[in-house]
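Saturday, quiet lab. Running sequence design on the structure tokens for the scaffold JK sent over.
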């Protein structure tokens, strides 16, 4: 059933309040207004008559207040719905509202639909770009290998190095573009446990020979306002970095901190010097220049976290190595 119009409830409320005020004026009148039609009756009436008028006044004011409250209730509901959309818990503003408000809701939902389609197109374009560049780079890499096999080792190594640099740049900027589009869309939602468990399983297989213990302690109800692909990207980079330096153990856990979920990744490796912790969050910077790596992993995590309104910080781990602390807006499930 369509809610009554806000205008109608306001008119009814004002009318009731005016009726109550009119009767209250009669009750509180003095002999100076002896010609008021209610006053002689009130002055010479019985106690029961006065009580009846008091009751009628109270009913008029209460009924008027009720009409105003019911008229404003849809606006309060609208505020809650908009908060849900902004927080990512809902994709649309649902419900029926007074005729004065409903056109605005319809236009807002149409705008959200348009924005979601634009985000989907942007993500698809990013995927098309990655696919379009993948084949040419593979062909060039193959030619570089052939050159090395033919004795042109220096030339082949140079080409291969440049291909790797191009691939890293492509991966970095595509991840950034995809996340920027995803962060702009309402309704993004991912479970921390599902993502962390998936990444941990893959890394356990990858580091099977080292027999690394990768522990995940994340309650199933912990969810963040983030696309699953981007959460996998962030946790994947953090866990991969932890596994790279860990001696025997990596631990992942999540906790609620106010309106955010904080995911910590600890390792028992050698850690990073305090003066280097901020630097390694910049693109292209590695804590150990002699080690393998691109220097883009932690920078990608930082950029993705910031796009979703989160942060990434580094500190000393209780396990003896490095602690990465990823903070993202929460959506409790």
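Result came back. Writing it out in full:
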């Amino acid at each position: 059933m369509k809610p009554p119009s806000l205008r109608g409830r306001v008119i009814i409320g004002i009318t009731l309040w005016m009726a109550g005020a009119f009767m209250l004026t009669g009750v509180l009148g003095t002999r100076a207004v002896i010609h008021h039609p209610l006053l002689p009756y009130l002055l010479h009436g019985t106690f029961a008559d006065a009580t009846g008028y008091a009751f009628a006044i109270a009913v008029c004011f209460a009924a008027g207040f009720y009409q105003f409250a019911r008229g404003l209730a849809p606006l309060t509901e609208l505020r809650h719905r908009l908060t849900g959309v902004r927080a990512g818990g809902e994709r649309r503003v649902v419900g029926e509202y007074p005729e004065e408000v409903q056109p605005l809701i319809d236009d807002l939902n149409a705008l959200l639909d348009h924005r979601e389609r634009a985000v989907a197109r942007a993500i698809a374009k990013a995927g098309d770009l990655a696919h379009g560049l993948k084949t040419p780079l593979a062909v060039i890499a193959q030619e570089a290998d052939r050159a090395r096999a033919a004795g042109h080792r220096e030339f082949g190594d140079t080409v291969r190095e440049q291909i790797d640099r191009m691939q890293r740049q492509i991966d970095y900027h595509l991840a950034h573009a995809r996340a920027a589009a995803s962060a702009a869309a309402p309704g993004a939602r991912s479970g921390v446990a599902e993502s962390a468990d998936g990444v941990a399983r893959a890394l356990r297989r990858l580091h099977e020979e080292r027999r690394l213990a990768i522990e995940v302690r994340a309650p199933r109800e912990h969810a963040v306002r983030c696309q699953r692909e981007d959460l996998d990207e962030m946790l994947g980079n953090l866990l991969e970095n932890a596994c790279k330096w860990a001696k025997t153990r990596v631990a992942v856990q999540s906790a609620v901190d106010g309106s955010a979920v904080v995911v910590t990744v600890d390792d028992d490796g050698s850690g990073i010097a305090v003066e280097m912790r901020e630097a390694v969050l910049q693109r292209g910077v590695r804590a150990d220049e002699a080690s393998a790596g691109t220097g883009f992993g932690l920078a990608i995590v930082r950029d993705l976290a910031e796009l979703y309104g989160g942060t990434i910080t580094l500190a000393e781990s209780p396990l003896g190595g490095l602690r990465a602390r990823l903070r993202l807006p929460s959506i409790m499930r």
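Notes for JK: The first helix runs from residue 6 to 27. The first strand starts at residue 190 and ends at 191. Ask whether to fix the surface positions before the next round.
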